[in-house]
C-alpha cells in the first residue's frame, strides 16, 4: 500500500472528512476492478461498488489497523456480489428451504463463509453448473438443457468445479 493511501486511511479513521472523500475516490477503481471479477453482472458490479463505498464511508472509524483495510474493503464487495447473485437465483420454495437446510446443518460459520467464497470465486461456467447441480439439485440433462450445453460438458464442468473447490480447501487447510 502506498504511503499516501496509508495516510489517507489514518486521517479518515481519525474523522477527517476531506481525507475520507479522497479515500473514496482513490479506492473506487480498485474496488470496481475486483467487483468485475467477482460479480455476475455489470449491474451487480455497480451496486456492489456503491455498497462498499457506503460501508467505507460509514464504518471507517471502526477499522482497527491500516493493514486490514484492503481485505476489509474487498470482503464487503465479495459479500455484496454474492448477495446480489443469490437474490437472482430462480429457486423454488422447496429448493430454497433445502438449500437453507444444507447451509444451516453446518455449525461452523467460518466453513460456510469459506465455501460460499470459494463458489463465488469459481469462473462463471463452473459456478453456474455447480449451483444448478449441487445446490438446486437439477439432473445433468436438466442443467444441460438450461445452459444449452451437452451432458458431457455439464459433467466435465461439475468435475472441474468440485476439483477447484477441493484443491482450495486443501491449500488453505
From TrEMBL:
- A GO MF label: sigma factor activity
Domain named RNA polymerase sigma factor 70 region 4 type: residues? 115-164
Q: Does the keyword Hydrolase apply?
A: no
> Quick one: a GO biological-process term for this protein?
DNA-templated transcription initiation
Q: State the UniProt keywords alphabetically.
A: Sigma factor, Transcription, Transcription regulation
Q: Which InterPro entries match?
A: RNA_pol_sigma-70-like, RNA_pol_sigma-70_dom, RNA_pol_sigma70_r2, RNA_pol_sigma70_r4_t2, RNA_pol_sigma_r2, RNA_pol_sigma_r3/r4-like, WH-like_DNA-bd_sf
All copies of the RNA polymerase sigma-70 region domain together span 27-88
Q: Does the keyword rRNA-binding apply?
A: no
In terms of SUPFAM superfamilies, this protein maps to:
Sigma2 domain of RNA polymerase sigma factors (SSF88946), Sigma3 and sigma4 domains of RNA polymerase sigma factors (SSF88659)
Q: Which domain of life is it from?
A: Bacteria
> Which PANTHER family does the record associate with it?
RNA POLYMERASE ECF-TYPE SIGMA FACTO, RNA POLYMERASE SIGMA FACTOR
Q: What protein family does this chain belong to?
A: Belongs to the sigma-70 factor family. ECF subfamily.
Its protein name is: RNA polymerase sigma factor
Q: Which organism is it from?
A: Acinetobacter nematophilus
Q: What is the lineage of its organism?
A: Bacteria, Pseudomonadati, Pseudomonadota, Gammaproteobacteria, Moraxellales
